[in-house]
From TrEMBL:
InterPro entries: HD/PDEase_dom, HD_domain. This is HD/PDEase domain-containing protein. It holds the Pfam family HD. Residues 28-153 form the HD/PDEase domain. It comes from Xylaria hypoxylon. It comes from the Eukaryota. PANTHER family: HD_PDEASE DOMAIN-CONTAINING PROTEIN (PTHR33594:SF1), SUPERFAMILY HYDROLASE, PUTATIVE (AFU_ORTHOLOGUE AFUA_1G03035)-RELATED (PTHR33594).
Amino acid sequence: MASIDALVNEGLITSVTEYVEAYMANYDGSHDFNHIRRVLGLAKYIHAHAPNASERDPQVVILSALLHDVGDKKYLKPGEDASSLVNDLLVSYGATEELARKVQTVCLGVSYSSEIKDPARVQELIKLHPELAVVQDADRIDAIGSIGIGRVFTFTGARTKASMAESIQHFHDKLLKLQSMMKTNVGRQLAEERTQRMKEFLRWWGEEAAFSGTDAIPVLA
C-alpha cells in the first residue's frame, strides 16, 4: 500500500502547514497547532486502516485535517468569512478550484454543532465526500480520552472561565456521546478505549468531589 504522504502535492502541503501553524499561534492550548498535528496523524491512520481507501482522495484528507479549525467560529477573526476562507487560501497557493471546494466542504462539515442540528445533511455530505468521515472521526477522537480531558479544562479556563464542575458537565453533554457518532469502524474502536478512560476519570472525580458537598457529580455505573 502506498503511503498517503506519497500521493500528495508536497509543496502545497508544506505551504498550508506553515500557514496553519502561524494562523493558530494565538489560539489557546485546546485548539493549538499540536491539536492539528494529532488530528492529522489520526486522519492518516484512519484513512490507511478503513476500508475503501481508494475511494478517498488522500490530499483532501490531509488538507482538511490541517485546515479544519481555520475559520472556526470560536476563533474567527474580524473580516474573515468562514464559508470561503479555506477555499480562497488553497486557490491562492495554487490548488485547483475543485480541490479547494472539496476541502472547504469537508472542513465545514466537521462541526459537531452543525451535525446535531442536521445529522441527515452530514450523512449526505459523507456520501459525496467520504474524506469527511475520516477527518471528522479524527477530530472527535482528539476531543476524548486523556488528551480530551486536558483540552476541556484548557478551553474552559482560557475562554469561558467556567467552574470545574461546569467543565465536568461538558463530558456528559457532549464528549461521552461522541463514540456513538463515529463514522468509521476504526474511529469507533479508538473512541471506545478513550471513552472508557473518560468514564474512569469521571468515577475518580465523583469520589473526590463528593467531599466538597457542592461540586459532586453522579458517579457513573
